[in-house]
Write a structure and sequence with these properties.
Largest sheet: 4 strands, mixed
Number of strands: 9
Low-confidence stretches: 17-52, 329-333
Radius of gyration: 32 Å
Structural class: alpha/beta
Number of helices: 12
Mean pLDDT: 86
Helix content: 25-40%
Oligomer: single chain
């Protein structure tokens, strides 16, 4: 048998080469490798970064407030929201009205937080929109710094819970809304300023300033810097962070008043307006948006509206009221604010028995704003 010549071997190799290439391309191993590479590439392209782990919110104020100051920013993230902060020692007797108010809104535009003094009984318990909205709470008593502590605690939780919270409205269990949610939301999120009553040279100013001792507030808070205002305010996110980060001014207010001066001890009406007056007066509208009637003053409590008084006429009168603007346009505040008329959004005090007549006019009047026809 003749041995194949080199030329014949070379020709045979050329004839077999295409078949080898085809076999390699269509082999299972090559196909698997290509598929695996493509899948890995697609996975890398479609993979989204994991959200940060939820912040563990501490229960003690010494850790809670610094954390809220350090882990949050002045500007909100995403859709602006309103944080409704309820400070209460009662099971919210007007909750059915608030339930209806929030049910008529878009849920991603607000959050609710409740500070409920744990020394009181809440029967019935919080339900509906208030269910699971109670933050870790501590006793909150008049004539002590604890009411202010509770408000600071609410701000800290709201800041840490949702970076979208932009405006923070402090409310009492006797407060009601006097406009629709839409009207309230638009009014607040379109503002770049806080709404907080800041009054100077009020009767009893020295007694309040000296309630902890004649010179206890010095040198941080001079008498000329001391301010008085409503306990109920609406703060921007920037000012909410200012409150939770403050220690210098708070240390002066976080002290018990002298026994003989207990009647002049209202830190919740002095700390917040004093702090914001000293730190950022131009960032404030020096007025509250919560209507109250102080023509009646019973043991430090304003007039309470009873069931027989509730009707469209009362709501219209409350809406048409004009806020009292403080600071007289001086000390850095904007003097043009005295010429403006910001609408009252809330009102107090309403009695427990007023809830049914309020509900009867809610849909057709309270939550139907004038501009809706």
């Amino acid at each position: 048998m003749l041995s194949p010549s080199p030329l014949s071997l070379f020709c045979a190799l050329l004839l077999c080469l295409p078949f080898a290439i085809i076999f390699t391309i269509n082999s299972p191993a090559a196909t698997t490798a290509k598929t695996t590479t493509r899948a890995a590439g697609e996975t890398l392209l479609s993979r989204k970064p994991k959200p940060p782990p939820p912040i563990r919110i501490p229960k003690d104020d010494g850790s809670l407030l610094p954390l809220a100051a350090a882990r949050t920013k002045n500007t909100p993230t995403g859709t602006k929201k309103v944080a409704f902060l309820f400070l209460t020692t009662a099971p919210l007797p007007l909750a059915p009205l608030w339930q209806l108010y929030f049910n008529r809104s878009i849920t991603n535009l607000y959050n609710i937080y409740v500070h409920a003094d744990p020394t009181f009984q809440y029967d019935p318990p919080f339900s509906g929109v208030f269910s699971r909205r109670v933050i870790p709470s501590k006793p909150a008593l008049r004539f002590t710094p604890t009411l202010s502590s509770a408000a600071r605690r609410l701000l800290a939780h709201a800041l840490l819970h949702d970076p979208g919270n932009y405006m923070f409205a402090l409310l009492s269990p006797s407060c009601i809304p006097i406009h629709s949610f839409d009207f309230t939301y638009r009014t607040l999120v379109n503002s770049e300023k806080s709404f907080i009553e800041i009054l100077k040279d009020e009767p009893g100013q020295y007694d309040r300033w000296a309630a902890r001792g004649d010179n206890a507030m010095l040198p941080e808070v001079k008498l000329e810097d001391f301010r008085i205002g409503s306990q109920f305010w609406v703060l921007t996110r920037k000012h909410a962070r200012l409150v939770v980060s403050d220690r210098r001014i708070w240390d002066k207010f976080d002290k018990p008043c002298e026994c003989e001066r207990r009647g002049s001890c209202y830190p919740e009406e002095n700390y917040f307006p004093t702090l914001l007056h000293m730190r950022d007066p131009r960032g404030c509208v020096p007025a509250t948006l919560t209507h109250v009637d102080w023509s009646v003053n019973i043991d430090g409590h304003p007039r309470e509206y009873q069931e027989s008084e509730v009707g469209p006429e009362l709501i219209m009168r409350l809406r048409n009221g004009r806020p009292r603007y403080g600071d007289g346009g001086t000390n850095g505040s904007d003097s043009t604010l005295r010429e403006r008329h910001h609408p009252f959004l809330f009102a107090r005090k309403f009695s427990r028995g007023s809830v049914q007549p309020l509900l009867s006019i809610a849909n057709d009047f309270i939550f139907k704003d004038q501009d809706e026809g």
